[in-house]
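2 proteins. here.
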Amino acid sequence: MMKRGFDIFLSSLAIAAFGWLIVLLVALVRITSPGPGLFAQERVGRARKNFVCYKLRTMYAETPSAATHHTSISAVTKLGRSLRRLKVDELPQLWNVLKGDMSFVGPRPCLPIQEKLIDERQKRGVFDLRPGITGLAQIQGIDMSQPERLAEVDSTYKQKQSFVFDLYLIARTVLGSGIGDRIQS
């Protein structure tokens, strides 16, 4: 209950503080490449229920929907590279946190087509958790290209989760630890 209260409080505060930045970045994305500024994609959430996850669009609009590690770097726009490097492409997920689809900390939500990862997470009870903007795997540099290892780390987070541990993971993320999902070179 404390975690959800924290998510509501912090996402409301962050939306109020950074809403203008999100609007500005959406406009910049639209100006610098054709297509919408926001990217909406179906993801697998808590209890394996699908939801729509929002991000700033960092790839060209015609890029096929696929796991990031199966997508070529040439699909990423020039502005998109900067947004990803600064990790601000995730800002619209504050709305997902406020709505309750996501939390600030938890396993990253995967695509419904990532069956191996879904199976591995199902075996370990990871879908008991609300997915997060950041998490233990991200801090350790583990992305979805390693489904078994990712599910193991997600399971470790499930066992270790606490409010203090979440604050630690948020601080590590803000201070630049971890990486985003790898893109093919």
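next one coming up
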Amino acid sequence: LCPVVSRSYWNSIGERQPSRALAKARLLHDRDPATSWEKWFAAYPSKGIDLRTGPRFTSSDLSLRAASLGLGVALAQERLAEEDLDSGLLFRPFGSARVSVPRAYWLIQPVQNDTRPAVRAVAEWIRLQAKRAGSAADS
């Protein structure tokens, strides 16, 4: 997890020091408790922040969209924000600082392997993406 924000919103706060700027910013919340701002502030304590305020969204993509529109700072799963970060729509005001969130996904197939090419292709793609994500997290 890492804070992401549009440059225009971040600059509008008028604070150069990131933790002070974050204290003045509107925090955008995702309803997933595994990606809550509490996790960020447990790892990077900051004073004067009321986590009860700020809009709450039903999904990560909505909080990222709100951040890209300049409505506040979202706490994002890096993989979900990757495209917006690469394009410059969002940026990471805390650089490479992040909080790890253990998470697991399961690929479930019947005991008798489905031999359809499309099923095999999707399963292989999922395995490749998981391996890449694991390698990126280790570096």
